[in-house]
Write a structure and sequence with these properties.
single chain; 348 residues; Quinone Oxidoreductase, Chain A, domain 1; seven-stranded mixed β-sheet; 15 strands; globular
Length: 348
């Protein structure tokens, strides 16, 4: 076994470099993973552009799938050779007040993968065992990778939403997050409305399972939703406060808009729109590891899949640039020589 491994790290904002790092053993409570695939997510900008506090250099990547090849002291449940995933949340501490209350997502000592410690743009990574997720045999590593962040984020938001089977649920944005949100919503039994600008996404939305498509550039999306009876839930996957506000009146009384698209623009909702009809707006970050397991199992059982383009690890910088330019269709996934398994249904 080689004493070094290849990694793509960022040395300062926007600057990638390929390096060979020494192989180290995992500390207590950690595992070492031979990475097979890692998704390229928009949130990687927090590392690459330095919008998060970063100790340089840092290896990005938080949609990581690989096999455990070493286990630190005290690790239970996981075994060498097991295929696992690591998402944005690096692992809860288990002892803070929020963990003790069962809120593992908002653990006060949570580390973010690829931000506080090196992530998956590499052949090897170290991860806390408390943050691992189990990869079903039915999913290839490349197919599973985007489900660890984009999939988990949309699945968790919809799974915990107040909608019931048969309710009208809208998904705003048919991009890297939204194309998964539409699929999950359809397979959860909702009447699904896809909302995007222009007619280009209409065919894709229907292929993904949407019952209705609203072109927000041609019609008022809130009025269009009300014409369908009003949405019980609107899942906001596109960033931008104006985008959220434009659809808010499309909620039925007691409906909720759930925002998972991060952006700096403020959300301007008037108090009458909130109060009359008792509508709500909420944010959703991601899910805990158990919900991650459920996301992956549900995806394998239902056939929900990300549309991916795979590229070699060496092309990480180009893949990141393509994703940030909005030219990915729809998720970029880095694959290593460790092997990424069978191709995904949407693989290109």
């Amino acid at each position: 076994m080689s004493a070094t491994y290849k990694a793509i790290q960022v040395t300062k904002p926007g600057e990638f470099e390929t390096v060979m790092k020494p192989l180290v053993d995992p500390d207590p409570g950690q595992v070492r993973i031979r990475v097979e695939a890692c998704g390229v997510c928009h949130s990687d900008a927090g590392t690459v552009d330095g919008s998060f506090p970063i100790d340089w250099p840092r290896v990005p990547g938080h949609e990581v799938v690989g096999r455990i090849d070493a286990i630190g002291a005290g690790v239970q449940r996981w075994a060498v050779g097991q295929r696992v995933g690591v998402g944005f949340l690096g692992g809860s501490c288990g002892y803070c007040d929020l963990c003790r209350d069962g809120d593992l997502v908002n653990c006060r000592n949570q580390e973010f993968t690829g931000i506080h410690r090196d992530g998956g743009y590499a052949e090897v990574m170290i991860a806390k065992a408390s943050g691992l997720m189990s990869i079903p045999n039915e999913l290839s590593s490349a197919a599973a990778a985007p489900l660890l962040c984009a999939g988990l984020t949309t699945f968790n938001a919809l799974r915990n939403a107040p909608a019931k089977a048969g309710d009208l649920v809208a998904v705003l944005g048919i991009g890297g997050l939204g194309h998964l949100g539409v699929q999950y919503a359809r397979h959860m039994g909702f009447e699904v409305v896809a909302i995007a600008r222009g007619t280009d996404a209409a065919e894709l939305a229907k292929k993904l399972g949407a019952h209705h498509y609203i072109d927000s550039a041609a019609t008022n999306p809130a009025e269009a939703l009300q014409a369908l009876g009003g949405a019980k839930v609107i899942l906001i996957t596109a960033s931008g406060g104006k985008t959220v506000a434009a659809t808010f009146k499309g909620l039925r009384p007691d409906g909720v808009s759930i925002d998972v698209g991060v952006g700096p623009e403020p959300i301007e909702i008037t108090s009458p729109d909130l109060i009359f009809g008792e509508r709500k707006i909420a944010g959703s970050l991601t899910g805990n590891p158990a919900t991650g397991d459920a996301t992956l199992r549900f995806s394998a059982l239902s056939g929900v899949a990300a549309m991916i383009e795979t590229v070699p690890l060496d092309q990480a910088a180009a893949a990141y640039a393509k994703m940030m330019a909005g030219k990915a269709r729809l998720r970029m996934v880095l694959v290593t020589n460790n092997g990424a398994g069978r191709s995904a249904p949407w693989h290109s």
